[in-house]
Design brief:
The protein has 4 helices and 7 strands. By secondary structure, the protein is of the alpha+beta class. The protein has one domain: 3-Layer(aba) Sandwich (Bit1), CATH 3.40.1490. The strands form 2 sheets. The protein has a 5-stranded mixed β-sheet. Strands 2-3 form a two-stranded antiparallel ribbon. Strand 2 and strand 3 form a beta hairpin. The two termini are 24 Å apart. This is DUF2000 family protein. Pfam families: DUF2000. InterPro entries: DUF2000, Pep_tRNA_hydro_II_dom_sf.
Amino acid sequence: MRFDTKIAVVVRDDLAIWQKLNVTAFLVSGIAAGDPECVGEPYIDATDHCYRPMFRQPVMVFAADADGIRAAFGRAVERGARLSIFTRDLFATGHDEANRAAVRAVPRDALDLAGFALRDDRRLVDRVVKGLVLHG
């Protein structure tokens, strides 16, 4: 099935594995919260046990070095994409309020990005992630 939109996550390639997974989980939660229509119906097994719904479409996860993530972030901002962001400062915080304060304290051009995610028109997303490789 071909979707009009695409979900992409861009994660720094020099993070520890647990950090990459943590960043990805937090970033996609922002997509689900900001675009509830991208979430499908609950899953129900043959014994009628109900499970939480998930995204209706695939999520592409890309890896980038510091320069690559900064360039892709710049392309996303230039195109007006709505983003979830995770900065390296957030590894030192312990709750949502502290996370938001840590981001608020830094101008956009100085954010030390660990990753970002977006769900937008697939062509726009393709332009944002151009040149990046899927996470291996």
